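Collaborator request, handled under Task 6.
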Amino acid sequence: MTDTVENLILDLLEWLSRKERTYQETMDAWRTSCPRLPVWEDAQDQGLIETISANGHSLVRVTAEGAALLQERRFTGSTPRSTPSEENSAMPQHRRS
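Structure tokens returned to the collaborator:
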């Protein structure tokens, strides 16, 4: 995994861990057609996120593996934690929350 994709995956995990997100909300914020930035696909393939059905909604959440990776990389100093402006730059301007 490239450093860019890895950092974006960590951003995705951190974004998802802040609050419950619907599948649609997640896709609106994180879908990309760039084959060089397969953030969503890589996170799913690695078992870091999952989509579940709850109360008639599709929700996306961080798995235990994703939470462990986020804890290891963002909070122990292995990868510098991004600033709020860097975190927000990964999401479209109109979709930030």
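The cover message to the collaborator said: "Residues 23 and 58 are 5 Å apart (CA to CA). The chain has one domain: 3-87. Please let us know whether this matches your experimental observations."
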